[in-house]
Amino acid sequence: MPFATIAELSKYDGQTLTLRGWLYNRRSSGKIQFLQVRDGSGIVQAVLVLKEVGEEMFRRVEAIPQESSITVTGSVRADARSPGGYELGASDVQLVAAAQPYPIALQAHGVGFLMEQRHLWLRSRKPHATLRVRAEVVRAVRDFLDGRGFVLVDAPILTPAACEGTTTLFGLDYFDEGKAFLSQSGQLYMEAGAMAFGKVYCFGPTFRAEKSKTRRHLTEFWMVEPEIAYGTLDDVMSLAEEFISFIVQRVLERRKEELKILERDTKPLEKIQPPFPKLSYDDAVKILNETRAAQNPPIPPFGGGDFGAPDETTLSLRHEKPVMVHRYPISVKAFYMKRDPAAPDKALCVDVLAPEGVGEIIGGGQREDDLALLEGRIAEHQLPKEAFEWYLDLRRYGSVPHAGFGLGIERTVAWICGTEHVRECIPFPRMMYRIYP
Amino acid sequence: MPFATIAELSKYDGQTLTLRGWLYNRRSSGKIQFLQVRDGSGIVQAVLVLKEVGEEMFRRVEAIPQESSITVTGSVRADARSPGGYELGASDVQLVAAAQPYPIALQAHGVGFLMEQRHLWLRSRKPHATLRVRAEVVRAVRDFLDGRGFVLVDAPILTPAACEGTTTLFGLDYFDEGKAFLSQSGQLYMEAGAMAFGKVYCFGPTFRAEKSKTRRHLTEFWMVEPEIAYGTLDDVMSLAEEFISFIVQRVLERRKEELKILERDTKPLEKIQPPFPKLSYDDAVKILNETRAAQNPPIPPFGGGDFGAPDETTLSLRHEKPVMVHRYPISVKAFYMKRDPAAPDKALCVDVLAPEGVGEIIGGGQREDDLALLEGRIAEHQLPKEAFEWYLDLRRYGSVPHAGFGLGIERTVAWICGTEHVRECIPFPRMMYRIYP
């Protein structure tokens, strides 16, 4: 008798087999038990009939607690009402290990409690579906970039210096070498990579020690960062819209079931195709100010600088597709951003704001490739020049225009799944007040 | 005129196009210059003939320093002597940015110096080839596991407790939550994942603060860790040999050019197919002791415990394929290892030693799935039980036999590439004395 997984039941129509899994839920009429059995690949209903299996087995199975590990032997039969299209006519159920009273009931709990039980909560339908979408997003990211000639060049996590200031860095002692910091971005390293490989990406965890408790923030999250030698702002804006569209369409194609479990309306996602709407920072400010003035009472006009979360929401809700805001003031952006030759107070940068109020999922742009200008920016930002000598070398030895961006994985998953909070979009979230389990 | 990459030159035979890249090297006869141009996707020879381009351009190009960024326009022509099969008859060369005198000459430098220049050294032929093999290994890992129904469940890097003792951990302050540690292994989290998804893996950077300066050690390295619910030691031993064979054959198939650049003899790699030789720990000790006794003067017999690097080398050099050493004494292994019911002083574990003296590339085995036995082991190892409550929950709620392993990526790349030191097998290595660039 073969062991099979629930995902592959359709291959065994009419045959008898054994599943190895867990008891997810049970309904009983007294004469028939409907067991919801999960094995990680899916959930199937196993039907146990008193008359067929006899009193002894029926009562024994009735006593098995939720989430106990069990094996179920039975015959596979098509059933149009079942989610996977099949159910199991059970002839034997064996207990592997009885569970203690399970802390997570199938009805609602508070998220705080569920996060404390994250190691178990992963078994429930919605977290399970969300993380399968996450795995698909990761796969899509790599398929897209590998398929277009980008070379994976993993950036280091332990770094000697900060990419964008030290206030939000996790620091630690590194042997006799002094302080090391957990990377906030692999970008600077990707610039070195692009000069060696042309088109590169890194994809790993990044860290921000932000004292922030919003629904958009994690202290540890995954980010993919492509970088292109000889690339311009326009190049990466095109790349970004193709990239995002590819990811969304891939999930729609391969994770239909999961999106259904998550009750995600997929119509807005079907529209995610290039081109995306583009908006200069100045035009975005105009829109925000019109929106503010139209309030009753009117809100004072936008003071300049970077957008806050409510501004991003205002902008993103105006469009069905992600909106690309480009050319922010150079004064609010990082030292490595290249100035727009046509407007020297602006940076050749772009943020991509996801629709439905999710906020920024991409930040990127063209990098300063002139040695003297970059040295000036490092001085202006009062950064320690010696830490950036290697980075300046990239301008000393064959500098070229180059550009790239970073896409935050968990925010992208939150958008695609329609999940309110990014903490549900990573297996074991890390936040200001959460480092367990 | 289209821009093209060197990798795709064969598509443009006979056509005129422009390449964007860097000047890797140059030979000149006074009347002809042979420019080695690289663009990250490959290296091509561009031939510049004085008579064809004229005195002015010829002299200008002659003055361009090594590693300057240049664009080269010319016609693509087949040339059997060229590595890629094509060369470029150059009609125009434009300087993008002149390089300062380049610190890396094409002849030999010491590795210490080169590592200090790692951001530039990536451009040289051998590091470039090694890291392309690394990217292929990563791709192969994901293709293998994704293709067999494993779900990616990324493990957290910031963890509240140690997996295998705290002496080799990097610690840091985590807001008001006390100390956090950088993960040494995602395994415990993968056990939770396996109970939810059946078959899972994590694949990310892991950290060991080892004061070790051997050629096999990095403080930051990438590891892939599959874990299987209802899996046994035998299951993961089979999986490991299929997995390693798949990776090696994939690299042989897709990275021929790179292995040639690395002067790797590929014959030993062609033999890497299941089954692999298997050896119990006790038999391995017998072999080591016979080897020791045969020395002149004889070396005292093996004292028990874990093998050291020289022992691993002795064992691995006896075989053409990786050798799988199983069932080590439980006393030398981590607290979560399951005892062998047939020999309670042994653990159901396996180490895979790569051939050619590279040492351990896989460690894994079956996990203790009995709550009381696991609690006993945690007490024996004097670990703080409260930190492992969530891990113990996996035995309280539907415990099942389960097993998995971890494969170290950089050691695997070192073996496949025939590279002596793992530090050359990661883009930006981190070692006890190295955190720059």
Please identify the oligomeric state. Answer: homodimer
CATH domain class of the largest domain in chain A: Alpha Beta
- Largest beta sheet of chain A, briefly? 8 strands, mixed
The most extensive interface between chains reads: A-B, 94 and 94 residues
Query: Which structural class should the secondary elements of chain A be placed in?
Result: alpha+beta
Low-pLDDT stretches of chain A = none
Report on the structure:
- The first copy, chain A, has 437 residues and is an alpha+beta fold.
- Chain A is 32% helix and 27% strand.
- In chain A, the strands form four sheets. Chain A has an eight-stranded mixed β-sheet, with helices on both faces. In chain A, strands 2-3-4-6-5 form a five-stranded mixed beta barrel. In chain A, strands 8-10-9 form a three-stranded antiparallel β-sheet, with no helix packed on it.
- In chain A, helix 4 crosses helix 13 (409-417).
- The longest helix of chain A is centred in the first third of the chain and has 23 residues, at 125-147.
- The radius of gyration of chain A is 26 Å and the shape is elongated.
- Chains A and B meet through strand 2, helix 3, helix 4, strand 7 and strand 8 of A and strand 2, helix 3, helix 4, strand 7 and strand 8 of B.
